[in-house]
Amino acid sequence: MNLDIEKKFWNQYDSVAGLDEVGRGPLAGPVVTACVVLKKNLKLTPEFISLIKDSKKISEKRRQEIFNLIKENKDIVYTIDIQSNKIIDTDKNILKTTLNSFKNCIFKLKNIPDLVLIDGNQIIPDIDISQKSIIQGDSKVFSIALASIIAKVTRDNIVIKYADIYPEYGFEKHKGYGTKQHIDAILKYGVQDVHRKTYAPIKNILKKNKF
Q1: How many domains does the chain have?
Q2: Edge-to-edge order in the sheet of strand 15-22
Q3: Residue 26 maps to which CATH number?
Q4: Residue 207 lies in a domain
Q5: What confidence category does residue 74 fall into, taking pLDDT thresholds of 50, 70 and 90?
Q6: What is the pTM of this model?
């Protein structure tokens, strides 16, 4: 991956941001979004650039290492927003929750970017900022890939901590996704506060088992 897409937009915009989310599908835990702003004349080493890929194509250990490098680089500006499972259940619309989280990420920035590139096929409603949605942006756009790594590491670190509270559920392995191990644990030990109770598998288990 390279900065070609950002360079193209830098001809028109001074600052370009990439947005991505992690955690729309799991049965437990938050959805996490990240926004990464890259300015014109950004200087990154070829070694660092070569490390960046879609977070799903990088090992857990390597993702953490890259996130540490991102945090050390003062030229990379980013924000993170976390929407809990309770907010997800209240909204009853994960897309709405995600788009609100994207908006929060943008407005947490000290300086609002001129253009926002968003992974997927949706744009954020009701904001007066130039936006472009890019399908599979996390594998095409450098700033979105950075956002995907930040969001993934942040969410994984949150959910791994659930394993200390609920060791029998295996959160350190499945990260809240609906694996057989996770479903079996819910059926055996019950639905917990970290679970998304409006998601069909959990909702159905609650109806049948009355936890």
Answers
A1: 1
A2: 77-83, 31-39, 15-22, 115-119, 130-134
A3: 3.30.420.10
A4: no
A5: confident
A6: 0.94
